[in-house]
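CORE FACILITY INTAKE
Project code: CF-77B
Contact: R.S. (postdoc)
Sample description: multi-component assembly, four entities in total
Requested service: structural model of the whole complex
Turnaround: standard
Below are the sequence entries exactly as provided by the requester. Do not edit them.
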Amino acid sequence: MQTTSGRHDLELALGEQINALVSATRALSERSAATFHPQLQPAAFHIARWLYAFGPARPSQVAEAVGMDRSSTSTLIGKMRALGLLDASPAPEDRRGTVVRLSADGRDRVAATLEERGKEFYGRVRSWSDDDLGRLVALLGRLTAERPALS
Amino acid sequence: MQTTSGRHDLELALGEQINALVSATRALSERSAATFHPQLQPAAFHIARWLYAFGPARPSQVAEAVGMDRSSTSTLIGKMRALGLLDASPAPEDRRGTVVRLSADGRDRVAATLEERGKEFYGRVRSWSDDDLGRLVALLGRLTAERPALS
DNA sequence: CGAAGTAGTTTGCATATCTCCACTATACTG
DNA sequence: CAGTATAGTGGAGATATGCAAACTACTTCG
């Protein structure tokens, strides 16, 4: 069964499992987004949590990565900077660009939001062994280790 | 009780990995949604793929599960039924309600969209062993086995 | 039986986001 | 240099979605 078609089936199965996970978390994500910061639109949370997961980046990278247009991204980044959630510094190699990163406060807020949301998820793994849970975390870590290679 | 702190760290790590995965897939999801069906809004794809992952359900369950309100859900379900992507049947135990399920065409379209999107993801697991990939699929399956218990 | 509650639909309105476009500042190319 | 391309910002109008309320059909409870 270690054939090419088995491999393809495995990849399809991975796609379906990722789909299930994303579907299952979508409601929570949207609700978290709404409560991330009272003065911000939901999409701001998508930007913040991408920066939390993948680190500092240029606004256009962020826009591409989260699937928003540059205009909205720019506006939201501006608001988050005004609220002290993000810091921006000029890009070292290209003075047209900037690099945005979460501030300490921004990181704390994302972490708090994720943990709050995660509570509704922890019940599912309550019966898991530490080994299985650790394995899943490690494998997901490998899966998301690289920044998305977007089209 | 002292072992719970390691456990809690594991759970936090799981939350962060899920966050990374959801963040990484968000752009792809949004783009897939736009191309799922030319005459449908993006959110229709969220409904369709939830049904694909978790099977037939009542409209209100769907709305709750994907984090949309009942009115938008109802409208989108109506459009998808008109396009033949969904079938609806009266709920067996409560004639106020209905149960919606993907039609064969709807299932095919979701599968095609997922596979198309997945291609951009498969590159990441190309170097993985079948064992590791199978393990991840199995663990994700356990994680998403139950329908979301929403609050 | 009647009253109250629930599932689903529909409508009107508010808001968030997208699309396109223009503009500035900087980078690259010939 | 001059001309073109790119990063980021901002605006105007269009669309998608959320929210609240009304309405029908059905269920449940007293």
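Facility notes:
- Chain B touches chain A through 64 residues (CB under 8 Å).
- Residues 58-60, 70-71, 73-75, 78, 91, 94, 96-98 of chain B lie near DNA strand C (CB under 10 Å from a C1').
Invoice: internal transfer
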